[in-house]
């Protein structure tokens, strides 16, 4: 598609002087008739046209576009043109769309709504970010709002509503993640004794946690697991489930295979026989997935029984998603290559693999070996 300039400038000879005129396109993309700039040099005519553009007056008779009007249909799956294209090219997860929509309504529109789109500057964006921080929002939350506005302003440039993107040089804030103290092997062994009844209230929740610990699967992936994707030597992970959105594609859109032991397969088979071809973890014969509240409650009870109470779990950052951190760290400690770990976890970058790594330097036996060899 040929790129259309905002305007074109051309000279017109009058009786005694040459005056520069300009032509531009209306909102339908049709070329309009020429208009005089009143300027006698091309440089001055360009500056005149840019001044008109920044004032929202380049197209005669058209009012400046306000941000609230530009944002009118954004992040609505039924009306947003950007989403219509994005969903066939590289779909956003429904939860992400909902987050962006909430950001727009509660945090972006109240600040930028009454501004003209072409007057939003990097300084205005920085002031907005500072205001969010002063209101007590953490950096991770602010980054979500920044991401939503970045997409919108980039699209405004593409649609030629503005010439430059005020978000172009705005970087994400540093998000300080709470330190996770990984479970120790002896704690894990207590959680998974020879007889599951010693610790767990139900077999389903026991296997749910064991599968999470051994595979690092996300909670939605385990919840949405059906019998047809469980094989003797591996699990094919290709979809996830949440109560709000039902079955949907994986977070990364790419399926993956995760190896499992014969023992774990046998334990999963008990549930598969019980629930036929339906959801593996279910209290309704496979028709509906197990309730997350039940998993949370019984998992908490199990941790209590091995001496890790709710206060300690909060301090150490231990929750159901912790198993993903645990498995990622354990594989790294076992010197499994980062590429292989990413194939199992589904992480797309080394930065995410590092994010899920939580080493206790006291466990670095290589350091002790070095020290011993140095003093021999």
Tell me the CATH superfamily of the largest domain.
Answer: Intergrase catalytic core
Say how many strands there are: 7
As a whole number of angstroms, the C-alpha radius of gyration is 29 Å
Q: Which strand order do you get reading across the main beta sheet?
A: 1-2-3
Specify the number of helices. 16
Short recap of the structure:
The protein is mainly α.
Secondary structure elements and their pairing?
Elements: E1 7-13, E2 18-24, E3 35-39, H1 42-54, H2 67-70, H3 81-89, H4 94-112, H5 122-134, H6 139-158, H7 185-191, H8 203-215, H9 219-223, E4 234-237, E5 240-242, E6 246-248, E7 256-259, H10 262-275, H11 292-305, H12 310-316, H13 322-333, H14 338-345, H15 350-355, H16 365-375
Antiparallel strand pairs: 1-2, 2-3, 4-7, 5-6
Helix pairs in contact: 4-6, 8-10, 8-11, 8-13
How would you describe this structure in keywords?
single chain, 376 residues, mainly alpha, DNA polymerase, domain 1, hpI Integrase, Chain A, 3 domains, three-stranded antiparallel beta sheet, 16 helices
